[in-house]
Design brief:
Radius of gyration of chain B: 20 Å
Number of helices of chain A: 8
Strand order of the largest sheet of chain A: 3-2-1-4-5-7-6
Structural class of chain A: alpha/beta
CATH architecture of chain A: 3-Layer(aba) Sandwich
Largest interface: A-B, 21 and 21 residues
Oligomer: heterodimer
Strand content of chain B: 5-15%
CATH superfamily of chain A: Vaccinia Virus protein VP39
Shape of chain A: globular
CATH topology of chain A: Rossmann fold
Number of domains of chain A: 1
Radius of gyration of chain A: 16 Å
Number of helices of chain B: 10
Helix content of chain A: 25-40%
Largest sheet of chain A: 7 strands, mixed
Order of helices and strands of chain B: EEEEEEEEEHEHEHHHHHHEHEH
């Protein structure tokens, strides 16, 4: 079986057995393959990259090759229990509209993204005066898919504006460990955020 | 293969006796669970792969995908390909003799539907000793047959492969078919379909129909790349001769088609396309049509296909996901238009091969 990223392991804990899952930007289908085996979920991955699509097919994962940015018109309202966007929200053209789509086709949304407000990022930008390059943001500004970076505060602000209720939040470092400073000052010390949310 | 059991058709008529021409590639295994049915499109036939003789200029119509090491790997699968009823390549159709009159059926041959074809194909499966297909596979009109199989006889297949297809025709699709039909029907040599007795064929009409069809099989980009505005001569001739390369290509395609395809069959095939709408029996809901079937789907479309555009394949995918069925969908970046499904485009071949590779064989009871 393919190994999971640490954030995917946390996501797994939020997924109910036998539920229906949509994994948007599913990569090579590792998470879905794991969930299928460990939690008997059914569902689909969405992926645009042909090499990743091929890996999903090889792994026996149901994969739908469509562009998330173009919307989820291929899915009916309320089709899923969980809709996941892991480490991709910041790379989408309109993350706000994707959140709407997630909660149209699913009951619950799950997103993970790197925290732009992490103290090291702040240090690089605030003191160094340069766009941060870090473990969770490894690419330089001119060569990155991350076009909509945000902080935890930004994301929570957007949720509030949209009437989205946050069910749970996990704040971890790049190895997805949690610590006391992270729990006390997440927006400063958290590197990666995982949110589970639903319509209010 | 000769069939003498009466076949009841959707139009209300019956065929009391009929022939089905078919070819097979590869070997049926002991478990009889590695059989794949290939369904052809509008002008296809049972000769899907390989060469019949050394003198053949071209292999079967889907040789790109069927053969050893190809997506439909004949080292693993037993492949059955047939000519559909109403065809003109060996199965009973308008050019066959009507046992009641002793003359060619011509326009009296009953109009066939995709469902009728599925029924006749299931009889072929019975005779070949195939209880359940590993997969039913087709592109375009062939993909519609694969979809209909899954809906009508879901216990008799495990996988359905639907490529460059649609859940039903659009008004524009029907409009193109209608122009094709009118061009045939209005040809003075058509004689209301009884042209065999007159020892003529509605050449111009059939040629026009094929030329029109070809335009819809290619994309604007593919035509631009293939022909652009290339001329046969340097100077304009100021008449209606074929001056542009694209004109002479279409004329050549039309003319060569006339020599080996029957006009009544062409009419019948376009009608089968127009009538296809498996959701109709389910209150217009394709999701309901597929909600209880235990068949996994592979759906593929091509970005530049405007005859059955990706959006049409996504309609099939939407119904399957709504019904929580297993489906994988690939949208292949290709500029060849509808014809792309016949072309060995690497991303398409890889995905198709990978999907077929997951189909287990040799495990049936």
């Amino acid at each position: 079986m393919m190994s999971l990223r640490p954030d995917q392991e946390i996501i797994c804990e939020w997924i109910a057995r036998d539920s229906r899952v949509l994994d948007m930007g599913c990569g090579k289908g590792e998470l879905l393959a794991h969930l299928k085996e460990s939690r008997a979920v059914s569902g689909y991955g969405i992926e645009l990259n042909p090499d990743n699509v091929l890996s999903c097919i090889q792994a026996g994962v149901n994969v739908i090759q469509v562009d998330i940015n173009a919307g989820l018109s291929v899915f009916e309202d309320g089709s899923f229990d969980h809709v996941i966007v892991s480490q991709a929200l910041q790379a989408l053209r309109r993350p706000d509209l994707v959140l709407d789509e997630m909660l149209r086709v699913g009951k619950q949304g799950i997103v993970t993204f790197p925290n732009f407000g992490f103290w090291k990022n702040r240090l690089q930008l605030g003191v160094g005066g340069i766009m941060p390059v870090s473990r969770t943001l490894p690419n330089p500004w001119y060569d990155t898919h991350n076009i909509h970076l945000c902080t935890f505060k930004d994301f929570e602000g957007l949720c509030k504006e949209k009437g989205i209720r946050i069910i749970s939040r996990a704040v971890v470092d790049y190895q997805h460990r949690s610590s006391l400073p992270m729990r006390l000052l997440p927006n400063l010390f958290g590197e990666v955020a995982l949110y589970q949310f639903e319509r209010e | 293969m000769q069939f003498d059991e009466e076949l009841a058709l959707e139009c209300g008529r019956t065929l009391s006796t009929y022939q089905v021409a078919y070819e097979t590639y590869g070997e049926l295994n002991a478990q009889r669970d590695n059989a794949i049915l290939i369904c052809h499109a509008l002008s296809g036939d049972h000769h899907a792969a390989g060469y019949h003789s050394e003198g053949d200029k071209k292999p079967g119509w889907w040789d790109s995908c069927i053969g050893p090491g190809k997506p439909i790997d004949t080292d693993r699968f037993f492949v059955v390909s047939l000519n559909n009823l109403g065809g003109c390549k060996g199965s009973t159709g308008p050019t066959s003799l009507n046992p009641e009159s002793g003359k060619e059926y011509g326009p009296d041959f009953p109009l066939m539907t995709v469902k009728d074809w599925v029924n006749s194909q299931s009889r072929l499966a019975d005779r070949l000793g195939i209880k359940q297909w590993a997969a039913v596979v087709g592109g375009s009109l062939g993909g519609m047959q694969a979809l209909q199989w899954a809906i009508s006889l879901p216990d008799r297949l495990r996988y359905a492969v639907v490529i460059a297809s649609a859940p039903k025709l659009s008004a524009q699709n029907i409009a193109f078919n209608e122009v094709a039909r009118q061009s045939i029907i209005s040809d003075p040599d058509f004689h209301e379909g009884h042209f065999y007795e007159q020892k003529v064929i509605p050449k111009r009409g059939l040629m026009l129909a094929r030329m029109l069809g070809h335009i819809t099989y290619l994309s604007d980009d593919a035509m631009r790349e293939k022909f652009g505005r290339m001329m046969k001569q340097d100077k304009l001739s100021y008449d209606f001769a074929a001056e542009f390369e694209v004109e002479s290509y279409l004329r050549y395609q039309g003319e060569s088609f006339v020599g080996h395809f029957d006009a009544n069959t062409y009419l019948l095939m376009t009608k089968a396309l127009d009538y296809f709408d498996p959701a109709r029996e389910f209150g217009g809901s394709l999701a309901r049509a597929v909600e209880k079937i235990d068949v996994s789907f592979f759906v593929a479309s091509f970005t530049s296909d405007w005859r059955f555009a990706p959006e049409r394949s996504r309609e099939i995918v939407r119904a399957l996901t709504d019904a929580d069925r297993n489906v994988s969908y690939v949208e292949v970046e290709a500029d060849q238009g509808h014809d792309a499904f016949l072309i060995p485009i690497p991303t398409y071949m890889k995905a198709f091969s990978a999907y077929m590779g997951n189909i287990q064989t040799g495990v049936g009871s």
